[in-house]
Each structure stands twice: as structure tokens, then as C-alpha cells.
């Protein structure tokens, strides 16, 4: 079943409130909808969220690379030649979310064509994941109120707190306020988006030693090679590599270097095909993983839960699946719903969700 066309459609959905973190902030979901058309009329979809401050991709660069580089390379291949498609896309190093969206849209075509959910095709381990919510920078009382609302309205009891500000007391104070307000039963972990130095990170972790943090993610830049090794060796809080480990080779380097003890898998940057490579590598190396959030919309979140629920290893921990709730609207015909702290894999064939043509017409920015 040959691919006949690949479209990259920019759209913009405003956020109700911005998400702020050490490397940037998001006010609007300026994403790209990727549609892969197959010869029998089946269309697969996925979304690419540009993160200029993380990977250097922009909405314009994603459109351009899909239109002028990737689409010409894969049009004419069959959707069942997934390894060939992966090999073609993998010839270049960059453009992770553009490639990931193409990969996932191809899987969506396959699932729709077979009438089977992608999550079942990938592994079918379970049909849901526990949800972890990312709390961005804000005054302490606002961060606490957001976490309490997520717990009260959606049953969420796992929170990833954004850190990496200076002075570190801003963040250690926020984490303390969250622990005091939410009590001992919620899980708290932190993500610095490379904001601190090794010594700042060490001081912050020492100051928070009594808060029962379960993970610490990307507290300092990836190229602080010895600093990361030193911090990982001296802390009892497992260190998670996220944007420093976006490809299997980087994952291997981070882990064997002693620079990280766990890996964040994001379908938004490794698709389904690349994410399975990272997952199986981590399983082979005996390393835990967490399903991360690239500040995804609902389509991206559906991809994350489809992949996360498909495997035992990825569904063991809560996945970061809730920040689409900050968006004022979305593209799907049926919204995702988090309840009892869980998100179920959408039930339809493929990724299991459909784009509403009226919403797309309203939010697309190219017409
Ligand atoms: C995360 O886990 O870091 C923020 C920036 C980015 O690249 O991803 C998000 C969340
Ligand atoms: Mg992160």
C-alpha cells in the first residue's frame, strides 16, 4: 500500500495559560499536523510540536523539511516498508519531531487499514496509563493550586515540577510548598531543562532531601560531562535523561557514561519505531523509562498513551499525559478524558482518534 502524498499543515491553538520551564515557555500550540495519504485513500495523522529552544525546530522548518526533503523520499514506498522509511528518515541527525510525526502517521495508516489499534500492534500490554502532570513555573500558591485542581478534578497524584531557576531557592521553595500542601501520598519529581550547573543541582537536591523526590531530570546541560557523572554518582534520586538522549546512541552514551540512570521516551521525537528501539535498548541495559511529554496536544498525547500502554516497561510508571488540558481547544472530534488519575488508549483503529475538519479549518494558519 504505497504512500502517495505527505502533507504538513501548520495550526495554532492558544493556551489558556502558558507553560513555563527553564529552557522556554509555550503560549500557543503552534504545531504541525502531518497527514500521510496512502494509495487506497486511507489517511494517517500525527502532530509535530516544534520546540525551538530544545531541538531548534520551528513550525516553518518542520513544514519545509517535510515538504522538500522527507515527503519526496518516502512517497512511493509502501507503509509496510517501515524499516525502509525509518532508514531513509534516519539518514539525517536532526528534525526529530518532523520525522516522528511522519513515522506515527504511517503507523496510523497501517492500523486504520487493518482495523486494529496501533497500541495493540505495538504490543497491547494494557489499555491505559496512570497520568503524571507537569507543573510549570509560577508563584508557589499558583503551582500548588494547579496540582490540587489536577488531583481533585482528575485524580492525578503524580507531578513533575519544573525547576532550574536561579536562585535555586525559588524551586526548592516551590517543591516544599507542593509537598506540604499535597501531603506524603503524592509522587513528586523534578525537571530542570538544563537550567542549573552541577553544583547548583547538588545544592538543590540536598536542600530537598527530605521531600521524597522520586526522579530528577536534566538538571544541567548535557555537555557538562563530568558534572553529570558526579551528580548522578552522589545522589540517591535517579537521574533521567530527556533532551540529552534523543537517539539510541545518545541513550547508550548517557547510561554507560554514568550521566543518567533512567531515560524519558517521547513519541513526539522518536515516533513509534524509534521509541521501540530506545525502549528495547533500555530493557536490554536494565534501565527504567518514563513516558515524557513534549508539550503535546491531544493527538500527540494519544500517541504517547498508545505507545506507553503497549508495553509493560513503559506503563510501569505514570506517563506525562495531561498538559493538553492547558490548551483552549484542540483538533480532535472526541476529546481525551483523564479520570481517576488514568488515561485510556482511544478505542478506534490506528492511533484511535480523528481530526475534526471544521476545527482544522478554523485553526490552520496556511489558508
Ligand atoms: C520536558 O520534559 O522537558 C519542555 C521542554 C521540552 O523540550 O519538553 C518539555 C517537557
Ligand atoms: Mg524534560
From TrEMBL:
Q: Can you name this protein?
A: L-alanine-DL-glutamate epimerase-like enolase superfamily enzyme
Q: Which biological processes are named by the entry's GO terms? A: peptide metabolic process
Record domain Mandelate racemase/muconate lactonizing enzyme C-terminal: where: 140-238
**What InterPro entries does UniProt report for this protein, alphabetically?**
Enolase-like_C_sf (IPR036849), Enolase-like_N (IPR029017), Enolase_C-like (IPR029065), Mandelate_racemase_C (IPR013342), Mandelate_racemase_N_dom (IPR013341), Muconate_cycloisomerase_anti (IPR034613)
Name the needed cofactors: Mg(2+)
* Assigned keywords, A-Z: Isomerase, Magnesium, Metal-binding
Which SMART domains does the record cross-reference, listed alphabetically?
MR_MLE
Q: Which GO terms describe its molecular function?
A: magnesium ion binding; racemase and epimerase activity
Sequence similarity: Belongs to the mandelate racemase/muconate lactonizing enzyme family.
Question: Lineage of the native species?
Answer: Bacteria, Bacillati, Actinomycetota, Actinomycetes, Pseudonocardiales
Pfam families listed in its UniProt record: MR_MLE_C, MR_MLE_N
